Amino acid sequence: MTFGTWLFTKMRGELVGTDDQGNRYYQDKRVLPGRRRKRWVIYRGEPEASRVPPDWHGWLHHTTNAPPPANGLPRRPWQKEHERNLTGTGLAYRPPGSSLSTAGEKPKPAYEAWRPG
Q1: Which of 2, 63, 85, 97 has CB 3.0 to 4.6 Å from 50, enough for a Cys bridge?
Q2: Is residue 75 one of the residues assigned to a domain?
Q3: Structural domain includes residue 102
Q4: Residues spanned by the domain of 69
Q5: What pTM did the predictor assign?
Q6: Domain-located, residue 96
Q7: Which residues are CB-neighbours of 70 under 8 A, at least 6 positions away?
Q8: Widest CA span of the chain, in angstroms?
Q9: 15 bridge partner residues
Q10: What is the DSSP string of 63-104?
Q11: DSSP, res 33
């Protein structure tokens, strides 16, 4: 967290709640007529946007005005646990034929050019 974010949060932030990962969610104390209140998150640990749970994501983006309950929304059986974003790391998914693949395969051309007989 930068000094500016810390100062802005101390001066104008109102804590709304936290999630199970320890991220803290704030909204602006000021209410301006005709405008929505600014909302933001202070991450615990690495600042990675994919760590925001779906219930808090809806609140952050003004989809709902009510923050989720303290223990989160009920989980459905088909919902998976959070998996961190691995893009840009050595564990990122690289499909077969990718130029970044370590399997030694060369990428296949997208098409084969026609050659007159």
Answers
A1: 85
A2: yes
A3: no
A4: 1-84
A5: 0.71
A6: no
A7: 17
A8: 76
A9: 26
A10: S-SSPPPTT-SPPPTTPPPP----TTSTTS---TT-TT-SS-
A11: T
| Residuewise pLDDT in 10s, the chain (117 residues) | 788 988 989 999 999 999 888 999 999 999 889 999 999 999 998 888 888 888 899 999 999 889 998 877 888 899 888 788 888 888 888 877 677 766 666 666 778 888 887
Measured CA to CA, the distance from residue 112 to residue 117 in angstroms comes to: 15
C-alpha 17/C-alpha 68 separation (Å) is: 9
Does some domain include residue 4?
A: yes
Number of domains in the chain: 1
Distances (CA, A) of 22 to 44, 62, 104: 6, 21, 41
Per the rule left: phi > 0, alpha: psi between -120 and 50, beta: everything else, 76 is beta
Residue 51: phi, psi to the nearest 5? Answer: -85, -5
Structure tokens at 96: 């077969």
